[in-house]
Design a protein that fits this description.
The structure is a homodimer. Chain A is built from 23 helices and 9 strands. By secondary structure, chain A is α/β, with parallel strands linked by helices. In chain A, the strands form 2 sheets. In chain A, strands 4, 5, 6, 7, 8 and 9 form a 6-stranded mixed β-sheet that branches. A 3-stranded antiparallel β-sheet of chain A has the order 1-2-3. The longest helix of chain A is centred in the middle third of the chain and has 35 residues. The first copy, chain A, starts with a helix and ends with a strand. Chains A and B meet through α18, α19, β7, α23 and β8 of A and α18, α19, β7, α23 and β8 of B. β8 of chain A pairs antiparallel with β8 of chain B, so a sheet runs across the interface.
Chain lengths: ~650, ~650
Amino acid sequence: MSSDKLHETLLPKRIALPIFASDALSSVAYAPDEIFLTLGMAGGTLALTHSWMIALAVVFVMLVVVASYRQNVHAYPSGGGDYEVATVNLGPRAGLMVASALLVDYVLTVAVSISSGIQNAATALGFIRGHEAAYAVALVVLLTAMNLRGVRESGNAFALPTYAFMLGVIGMGAVGAFRHFRGTLPNAESADFELVAEHGYESLGGLALAFLLLRAFSSGCAALTGVEAISNGVPAFQKPKSKNAATTLLMMGLIAITMLLSMISLARWTGVKFADDEAVQLLREGVPVGDSYVQDPVMGQVAKAVFSDFHAGVVFISIVTGIILILAANTAFNGFPVLGSILARDGFLPRQLHSRGDRLAFSNGILILASAAALLIVIFDADVTRLIQLYIVGVFVSFTLSQIGMVRHWNGLLRLERDPRERARMIRSRVINTIGAAMSGTVLVVVLATKFIHGAGYAIAAMAVIYLIMTAINKHYAMVAKELEVVDATAQLLPARVHAIVLVSKLHKPTLRALAYARATRPQSLEALTVNVDPEETRELQEEWEARAIPVTLKALDSPYREITNPIVNYVKGMRRESPREIVVVYIPEYVVGHWWEQLLHNQSALRLRARLHFTPGVMVASVPWQLRSSEGQEDRLDSGAVPGSVRMGQ
Amino acid sequence: MSSDKLHETLLPKRIALPIFASDALSSVAYAPDEIFLTLGMAGGTLALTHSWMIALAVVFVMLVVVASYRQNVHAYPSGGGDYEVATVNLGPRAGLMVASALLVDYVLTVAVSISSGIQNAATALGFIRGHEAAYAVALVVLLTAMNLRGVRESGNAFALPTYAFMLGVIGMGAVGAFRHFRGTLPNAESADFELVAEHGYESLGGLALAFLLLRAFSSGCAALTGVEAISNGVPAFQKPKSKNAATTLLMMGLIAITMLLSMISLARWTGVKFADDEAVQLLREGVPVGDSYVQDPVMGQVAKAVFSDFHAGVVFISIVTGIILILAANTAFNGFPVLGSILARDGFLPRQLHSRGDRLAFSNGILILASAAALLIVIFDADVTRLIQLYIVGVFVSFTLSQIGMVRHWNGLLRLERDPRERARMIRSRVINTIGAAMSGTVLVVVLATKFIHGAGYAIAAMAVIYLIMTAINKHYAMVAKELEVVDATAQLLPARVHAIVLVSKLHKPTLRALAYARATRPQSLEALTVNVDPEETRELQEEWEARAIPVTLKALDSPYREITNPIVNYVKGMRRESPREIVVVYIPEYVVGHWWEQLLHNQSALRLRARLHFTPGVMVASVPWQLRSSEGQEDRLDSGAVPGSVRMGQ
């Protein structure tokens, strides 16, 4: 498990940064687009006048969030993920809310990152256009396969493309700035278009305008997704862990800000026109460009302008952007199963998701994540803009709750702490987290207010459903635990006698072995049992039984309806009624095949019979396996999650 | 099972007829269409000149086939289905060929009947048009549900619609004839169209023309499908079984012929123009009618003409036709699982398909049939004409082989029979069956020759694949049986000692019960085993173990990779290595839940562990179930094919 791996090998900052930053940094690939197209709804001017303002607001929030999480990192060197922080300080309910938010978010991280990656790739690879959703799903499948096969990237595998992406974007910013001030920076392809307001947004009053600005702001806040990643990974850092983690977090924040700002300025300098509904809103000499026009992402348009005389640059940008977005998606493939396993450990999700080193556990998590993401991609046709509407809510739900939790955390400590210098630091931290909480709380409200009808509502609904399911699951586990609790010693009472029954359908090796094993356990009574489905077969069996002089009496049960389960079950129940204080052991000769297709060829009566017998108290089912040659060497396949070798009544 | 039910209550001829005839009679709903549109490929004249000839040829084949099957009925009063007849007289290979053909045919019966039913229904219910495939699949799903729920029609449920259909069609023939000779029979809506040849068929030479006629003939032979049904059902008849069955068969044949001929004559009198590619081939005042024109089935067009002044008649015809076609499809839902069960009994199909009163058996068959049929309907877009191309091959493969088998049958009897009168009758029968074999063989060749490229090839391929799969399955069962055969008495040797191991994950009631049961079997050695995944948990467990003074030593296995299966399996294998002549019994405390969703909440480590342990010889796994309250009263749900109550390691 990559999570374990991270814990084994401690990371220097230069490796930790790319590992934890890919998600946060990748959002610069789509955040600017969202800002511009939202502003663009009101026509061309608003983007020019206010994109800066929005960008600065986002940057400010980013700084606050980074500052706040630096406190988390210091307070929880053990790696205080938002779920733990909220659970510990605000109780399981809050923790569960955070968890639901994060689960939804992981899914959206995959959906959004992959979709955006595909859109960027399309800038360079035209053939993708028109089939975005298909390619996106294919990519999800690929990632799933990789993660199922346990292909996890080493730190370096992360480092290279992430640094390449930083280099690319910041380098593009530098080149762009240079050419801009030299006056040699050409316009973006969309610069000459006229950008008209979307229908209904033509002439907005002050209030409506403010609302639109807020909406642009909350879309821009997509840039903040993934900032919390480091707070989960503190233990992976080299000593001094907290200090290094905090520094890395700060670096990450600053880099993200630099990249965002350079993207915004480049977009403004090259006069990028980016529209929500390009076919209608963009006019070429007064006529709408129509569906034939394909609108490249801001990143792509800017790259084409900055590297107008250097096509390799454009390709480089589009490739590294694609890769970083895939890495970002991949972080969810690591994070989701880990969180799922933690929630399963705490009894909020099915225990299968709790690893205990059981490989299937993580596989389940990966498959759930992948299918949910693929579903979203198909539903929203890999349209980043529409997916973004659902995205940011979860992030800020967990930001807010985790920050409130931190405030509580400091309050707790301050009650005990006497040393004034310590207190001073704690108070400082508490102030920061309070600001963080207030800030992210406000953003959350803004996001909800501006995006609820545009999709955030679905995200909230999904969280609510997940929350309810998790509480229900938890109730069930509690109920079972209560029921199984040992209250008195009655459970330890020894049964008086043991009756053994060996089920026989044919007289072959598995049957003989079952008989031998049953006799070896020296029960007080032992009999062989067969069901008379076909009188012919039964008589042959009895004759052979005599012929082989088998020292156990063979009893044949009648079966009016030519079926085997009920007669046996009823017979066993009858024995139980006669002597409730005694137990019945039913020996079933079963055998083991090697290949999944062989199982299809063997009827499952043994399995069904066992399932039925399990409902009768005081009955124990002992399966005596016979290994067929085909099963040799197949044992290991089981671990790789393959179907377990079939067990069936020998016949 | 309806098959059983039929055997319980013996049927009078008047009930047996509709039960067995629905399939055969229903084909009159689509056979004429196929004749006309195939002839129509060469333009309007051919249908006028030759449709009679084709019809008479089909009638002739029908008479021969009926005569031949009357011999089967006499020879096999036990109900000699084609599969039995071929197997008994020509050996398993031939039997298997017949079986493959029949399996494919059952699927096609469903696909063709339902599709045709939908097309006819569309005559009255316009809204179906354009969504035929969807409605057809829905209908298949409905039939599947009914058959899964065990809703089988009583004889009367069959009788009513079948007689209504006979009455409808023959009545329509009478009315039509009356109006025709009175000169008051109006033309069909399509009569005024000009029917031009399909591209490539404009001016056919003698040979090509003959070929087209043969093709029309083989399409028309669709009318013969289902004639063999009665030969399977002889035991269901009242005494004298064979005689009554033979009479019923004859009646059925005559009725089918009457209906076919009246449909053909009505179509000719009303001047129905029926085209393969109506949009292009039908001209209204010299211009193709185009896609807007919907071509009703011949049945519908004729009805509209005959009942021009009596709309209720049209509706009646279209309804009874729809119902009879659904009944025809339903016969396949009874026949397919029965044949599957017979083949499973003979070891050619997975044993799950062999009933032994196990309800799941038939459900499996029904589901396989339904999904295959639905797939075909979707692939061929519920287009009867294209499905027909695949249809008739199988029928004639089994006709031919079964008839050849009958000839063999008589040869065998004649070798022994001395009584001249008996011999005379046998020789007569043999002559008839020989003609039948020759005839259906010829038709089979014609069908293959004329339809192979049009789809019959697929049917052949499907049969071949099924044939190969069935032989492979048979080989496998034989191999297993051989491997399990008892050759010497070594299998009876008693193991020297019994080592018992009780697996413990928590100390709760299921664990204590498992311990008690294990102790009750008085093994030579007994120990409790837990896996040290979480040192914390393990220590708690050990302390509680001490506190409760449990008289069994608890051993904790280390698990470097934090997983449970391997340490246990390796430990057990170790014990085995030390003392191969002794057996190990592993007691697993499991518990039983009532609802499927509860299973999802309990990890399956016990199941996986058992599966793994089964691969180690000399190890017996005893599951000690603990019944949770939620499991009470849930036992019966198992029989209804619901998921069996989950068994899992208590924790």
